[in-house]
Amino acid sequence: MSKTSFIIAIFALVSLIFVGLTQSTPLVPLEKRFSGAGAVAYCDFGDKVTGRFTWTNIPGNKCRVMGQFNTGLESPDVKEYSFFLEDDKETKVHDLTEEIASQIHINPPGASPFQCDFPFSLTSVKDVTGLCFVVKHKGTTLSKGIIVGV
């Protein structure tokens, strides 16, 4: 390699490093890029029914709900259960029974995992934080858990 080619290669390398280090491209926070994506809330059940459900805002203005009941479900017939969110006045805010019942399989005392994506118009982490997740069997409340934001 000639001396001139070596000097040109070094100059090009230094120029690339300089440009790379001095570029001023602003970084847009994830919160703005994905319209609230990444926010998380959870609900732990700890009395008759045990398990955990989480709400996570995901890109596309959706909220992913995932969870599993570990114990407390005594009947294998999922149609006997209702799952819903209620506020502090015990008013039903959002009924999740149809979505959960269509996906889980109950093998007493627990159930298979559940996952469903909802549009923000139905639910988001901001909307569910502070609400109560209620599990009922034939109209009798088995468990309630408060949804807590992270």
From TrEMBL:
<keyword id="KW-0732">Signal</keyword>
<protein>
    <submittedName>
        <fullName>Uncharacterized protein</fullName>
    </submittedName>
</protein>
<feature type="signal peptide">
    <location>
        <begin position="1"/>
        <end position="24"/>
    </location>
</feature>
